[in-house]
Amino acid sequence: MAVYTDVSFEDLEKLLTEYDIGSPRSFKGIAEGVENSNFHLQTDRGGYILTLYEKRVSADDLPFFLGLMEHLATRGIDCPQPVRNRAGKNSIVLNGRPAALLTFLDGVSLRKPDVMHCAQAGEALAKLHAAGADFKPARRNSLSVTGWKKLAGDTRADADTVQAGLASLIETTLAEMDAWPTALPSGIIHADLFPDNVLFTDGKVSGLIDFYFACNDAFAYDIAIMLNAWCFEPDGAYNITKGKSLLSAYRQYREPTLQEAEALPILARGAALRFLLTRLFDWLNPDPAALVRPKDPRDYVKRLRFHRNVRNASEYGL
Amino acid sequence: MAVYTDVSFEDLEKLLTEYDIGSPRSFKGIAEGVENSNFHLQTDRGGYILTLYEKRVSADDLPFFLGLMEHLATRGIDCPQPVRNRAGKNSIVLNGRPAALLTFLDGVSLRKPDVMHCAQAGEALAKLHAAGADFKPARRNSLSVTGWKKLAGDTRADADTVQAGLASLIETTLAEMDAWPTALPSGIIHADLFPDNVLFTDGKVSGLIDFYFACNDAFAYDIAIMLNAWCFEPDGAYNITKGKSLLSAYRQYREPTLQEAEALPILARGAALRFLLTRLFDWLNPDPAALVRPKDPRDYVKRLRFHRNVRNASEYGL
User: Fold this and answer.
1) B107 to A25: CB separation less than 8 angstroms, yes or no
2) What is the 3-state secondary structure (H, E, C) of B11-64?
3) In this structure, are B223 and B302 located in the same domain?
């Protein structure tokens, strides 16, 4: 098995005595998720994902993540639903790890979303922002400016081995983050709504997954993350048609303020820096037990350089 | 994705235009199989496995493996069935690799099979041996004595870094293989029927998988492999109750000859050597792209030492 923590069928059988979800039909480790160990379980009643939370997901945050998924579903968002066991708990401990059993969502994630998919995803983000409005628990974004400073420190010595001048680019960008906006309209954000995490069925969004970076932060920062993740071409060029498509679909469900529009360039720069830094850290510190190869941080160097030349939000298509 | 060769949904969509199997509902890389890249595909018509064949599986052998699975199904063996595309082909090339789309089998593989499971598995092996009888194509066992000699040479220099005295144990055992029997009743064997490759549903065998070591060789060698794989406890002790259970279930469907019974000790020793050597090689040459951690070769050192003290087949429960 290529998962961090192994779960045998015998472990599963024991676990299932605590749940009312039918008899197992198949059970397989799946090659998905950088952070966790995931297993696909099919029973005679339906499909489930068993997730064991590893290193980056803190057990203390689980009630927030699982509670959020339950809340969002009651507000019409299609996302995995934690299954409660006979004792009423939506999380357990399995093989020494915090774990949860979640409903499996049909749909596929796209490697090369087109302009229409970007619109669908922008709409989904706006609806997510609205649906989170009355969710009471809160979680600080641990991967905002303070977190970036730590990652920059941890990667400074070796950054230039990945690309000449990278340490200096990170340092300069980080210094600019002193102007990071802190009074923008905020609420629950997904914070990682990459194409990997949006499922499509027949060209329509059929679900959002992987809420394990969700937190309270600026809505416009979530938009900035999506512009980075959905609107650049493989050669590193920004595709303004995709940007316009994503942004105008978002605006049909939630209209940004002028302040948010003005902040978009720095937010996009910060978002590129965030993914550059986590990818750089994982690149320099590969986990031999990981089943996912580290992603090339240089994709985000290109994006960051693009954002550093952007003067206003119209260049993104807003 | 933690598979050797990645397949995007877009790659899959293009591929599916060549097949008549319905619309995709989900598509995920699965953490399974040491040798290949595997993806689970669910369409509105059923479940499938897309396999891309890597290094150890030669494209030249694919017609044998796929043809065998088709043949066995016509003889009542539940095993994955290659799906033919609109052009009538059961294998294709995808992302530079030979590939095949196979039907997905329900069932789970057990980590700790009990005595009854051993009986089920022994029965399945005997039925497999009978079902292969009239399969015309043939494939030499590339992992028999000649293959072991090559692996022993490739691992000799570093074997003792894994366990003191290992190089010498391998050399001595290999010398004994000069007495390897070559005139035993032969036919199609699975050659890798570990608990991983036997699926159970509700305590009954629901399918056999992973035929990529299948070849023409002695039936009793296949039995010897199963005694190694099913009848030892985690502490290294041989469980003769499991051995008796597996062997007597086998005998209900195919009675071994006296010659086969007499050969069992050397066959079991050879089988332990075969898995010791391939595990040792993978342990000494880990593939950083592999999603499966190398298995500890020392489990098979224990088995081999046990077999070296066995004087006749009754010690296995025959």
Assistant:
1) yes
2) HHHHHHCCCCCCCEEEEEEECCCCCEEEEEEEECCEEEEEEEECCCCCHHHHHH
3) yes
